[in-house]
């Protein structure tokens, strides 16, 4: 594991995540009932990422200023807290909440694990930041993180800043298939980073194709595609002008290449996943996949799981997944899969499947996905016992 990888994520008072800590190795897979908080875990990390990369104002505006973001059981002065831990540091963002919105003047702290002291501290609503070895300073841009403004002066801040810049979130339900079926793909020249809505897929793949004799990224994507879909042979690309690429698909049994508007959703979905996994070089991404099972046959899902294992074990990526798919969760070891459920008060509770005592004997004979389908773990049909305080009077 890289020394700059995420080793834990601690989230408090964010939607249903009243107090959730995820200990993260190379792979973590969350599954459970609808609305239990799986995707919220991913979005909490994305919120921290967006504050660092795009600025606090933009991060909040894309979330309606945080309306409804606070855990409904939080006290009046409680903050939303997102704590990011690496091998060297613990960095926290605290988001104050009032009038049903997040205060854009966030709190921050950075704790050095080696020196056992706080290097920076900033209180919610303040424009000053305190340093351990220097007098406090007034932030030039108070609605930006000190992380972004002082990363070049404090090595541990630079480490956290780099980690957050390497977070890439791919919600399958937001993939821009309609744009991919247009006769070209346009983006900034030279990038091999897939946009989170996937709209630059053909351009990125063309860039990787041009580098196929230099590294193995394109060939890795192609190999997993061919394994997923036996009729898939490959892709052809035609640069139209700088930044614009046309693509065609080659299938067995067809005499002519297939235009992009005729490509099946399943092909597009798998290409997006594989490009997200392998478009960057080794050890350069923390990838979040939300419902990656969409449009994919069970066989293709098993190949996707192999690709994910390859990306984590051989390419040294970190991957966090939120899924509903029994097929997908059955492909991974018990140490990597976790249920996300809500308790009687609506708080999300995360449990490693290997620690659910009542199903350990069943796991000797049945895959975790089979037990999920049978509602032996993380059941959807189980009704929460709602405390009287939440019941509607007269019902």
Can you offer a commentary on this structure?
The protein folds into 2 domains: 6-172 and 283-374, P-loop containing nucleotide triphosphate hydrolases (Rossmann fold), CATH 3.40.50.300; 176-269, no CATH class. Helix 8 (265-278) packs parallel to helix 9 (298-313). Strands 2-1-4-5-8-9-10-11 form an 8-stranded antiparallel sheet, with helices on one face. The chain has a 6-stranded mixed sheet with strand order 12-17-18-3-19-20, sandwiched between helices. It is 26% helix and 26% strand. Strand 19 and strand 20 (348-352) form a beta hairpin. The protein has 11 helices and 20 strands.
Give a quick rundown of the structure.
By secondary structure, the protein is α+β, with helices and mostly antiparallel strands.
Give the secondary structure arrangement, pairings included.
Layout: E1 8-14, E2 17-23, E3 27-31, H1 38-53, H2 56-61, E4 80-85, E5 89-95, E6 97-98, E7 101-102, E8 107-112, E9 117-122, E10 128-131, E11 137-138, H3 146-150, H4 155-165, E12 167-171, H5 177-180, E13 185-186, H6 201-210, H7 217-228, E14 232-241, E15 244-251, E16 258-259, H8 265-278, E17 286-290, H9 298-313, E18 318-323, H10 326-329, E19 337-342, E20 348-352, H11 368-373
Parallel strand pairs: 3-18, 3-19, 12-17, 17-18
Antiparallel strand pairs: 1-2, 1-4, 4-5, 5-8, 6-7, 8-9, 9-10, 10-11, 13-15, 14-15, 15-16, 19-20
Helix pairs in contact: 7-8, 8-9
Distance between the termini: 54 Å
- Largest beta-sheet details: 8 strands, antiparallel
**Judging by the overall fold, what is the CATH architecture of the largest domain?**
3-Layer(aba) Sandwich
Arithmetic mean of pLDDT = 92
């Amino acid at each position: 594991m890289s020394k700059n990888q995420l080793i834990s994520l601690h989230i408090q008072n964010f939607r249903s995540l009243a107090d959730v800590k995820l200990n993260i190795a190379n792979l973590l897979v969350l599954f459970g009932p609808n609305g239990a908080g799986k995707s919220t875990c991913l979005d909490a990390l994305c919120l921290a990422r967006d504050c660092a990369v795009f600025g606090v104002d933009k991060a909040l505006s894309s979330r309606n200023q945080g309306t409804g973001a606070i855990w409904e059981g939080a006290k009046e002065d409680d903050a939303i807290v997102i704590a990011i831990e690496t091998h060297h540091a613990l960095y926290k963002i605290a988001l104050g909440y009032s009038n049903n919105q997040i205060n854009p003047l966030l709190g921050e702290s950075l704790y050095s694990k080696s020196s056992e002291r706080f290097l920076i501290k900033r209180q919610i609503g303040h424009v000053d930041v305190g340093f351990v070895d220097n007098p406090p300073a007034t932030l030039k841009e108070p609605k930006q993180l000190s992380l972004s403004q002082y990363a070049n002066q404090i090595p541990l801040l630079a480490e956290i800043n780099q980690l957050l810049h390497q977070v890439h979130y791919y919600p399958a339900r937001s993939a821009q298939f309609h744009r991919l079926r247009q006769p070209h793909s346009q983006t900034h020249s030279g990038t091999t980073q897939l946009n989170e809505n996937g709209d630059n897929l053909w351009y990125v793949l063309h860039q990787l194709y041009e580098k196929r004799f230099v590294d193995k990224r394109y060939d890795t994507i192609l190999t997993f595609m061919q394994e997923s879909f036996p009729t898939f042979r490959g892709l052809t690309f035609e640069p139209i002008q700088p930044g614009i690429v046309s693509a065609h698909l080659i299938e067995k049994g067809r005499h002519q290449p297939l235009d992009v508007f005729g490509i099946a959703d399943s092909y597009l979905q798998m290409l997006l996943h594989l490009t997200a996994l392998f478009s960057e070089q080794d050890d350069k991404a923390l990838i979040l996949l939300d419902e990656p099972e969409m449009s994919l046959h069970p066989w293709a899902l098993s190949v996707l799981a192999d690709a994910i294992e390859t990306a984590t074990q051989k390419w040294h990526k970190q991957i966090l997944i939120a899924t509903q798919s029994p097929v997908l969760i059955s492909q991974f070891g018990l140490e990597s899969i976790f249920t996300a459920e809500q308790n009687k008060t609506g708080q999300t509770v995360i449990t490693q499947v290997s620690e659910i005592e009542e199903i350990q004997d069943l796991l000797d004979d049945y895959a975790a996905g089979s037990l999920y389908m049978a509602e032996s773990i993380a059941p959807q049909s189980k009704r929460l016992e709602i405390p009287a305080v939440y019941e509607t009077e007269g019902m």
